[in-house]
């Protein structure tokens, strides 16, 4: 299922792995960094900022910064960030953030992962459409990255 509105992106994938394994891939900052291609410097902690350098080719100049909203074990992981804030000449600090939520649920064949990013209507109009388009494509790719990561490292810790 892929659901798109002008304010929210929603993507879903089923991964043939246990809920605990997929949860760890999403919430352990080192594993998250492996599949997301970011070198995070600290664990995810509710109410705190976690940041790191993007390692994806062409985006190495970007520092990712998230504020963790929620960690509800094996169910919901959520953070706030500034979408597609990639121009080093622009100060994005006054822009509102969007909320990214990972919701996990068990399925007969493994784990369903739903990622939702909402709040695009608050992004400045001059860059809203591009941020939305890039993140819509990005989340589709990142769900595949989670699946590949879990399949390639089934017992990673």
UniProtKB/TrEMBL annotation:
Pfam family, one: AHSA1
Residue ranges constituting the Activator of Hsp90 ATPase homologue 1/2-like C-terminal domain according to the UniProt record: 17-150
InterPro entries per UniProt: ASHA1/2-like_C (IPR013538), START-like_dom_sf (IPR023393)
CDD domains, sorted: SRPBCC_CalC_Aha1-like_5
Residues spanning the signal sequence: none
Family per similarity comment: Belongs to the AHA1 family.
Designated name of the protein: Activator of Hsp90 ATPase homologue 1/2-like C-terminal domain-containing protein
Protein's organism: Allorhodopirellula heiligendammensis
């Amino acid at each position: 299922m892929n659901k798109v509105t002008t304010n929210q992106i929603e993507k879903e994938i089923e991964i043939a792995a246990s809920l605990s394994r997929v949860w760890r891939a999403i919430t352990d900052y080192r594993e998250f960094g492996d599949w997301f291609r970011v070198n995070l410097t600290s664990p995810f902690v509710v109410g705190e900022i976690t940041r790191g350098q993007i390692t994806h080719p062409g985006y190495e100049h970007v520092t990712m910064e998230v504020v963790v909203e929620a960690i509800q074990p094996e169910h919901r992981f959520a953070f706030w960030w500034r979408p597609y804030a990639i121009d080093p000449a622009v100060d994005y600090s006054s822009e509102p953030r969007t909320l990214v939520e990972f919701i996990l649920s068990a399925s007969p064949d493994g784990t369903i992962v739903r990622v939702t990013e909402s709040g695009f209507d608050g992004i400045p109009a001059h860059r809203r459409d591009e941020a939305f388009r890039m993140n819509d494509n990005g989340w589709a790719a990142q769900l595949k990255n989670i699946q590949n990561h879990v399949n390639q490292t089934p017992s990673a810790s």
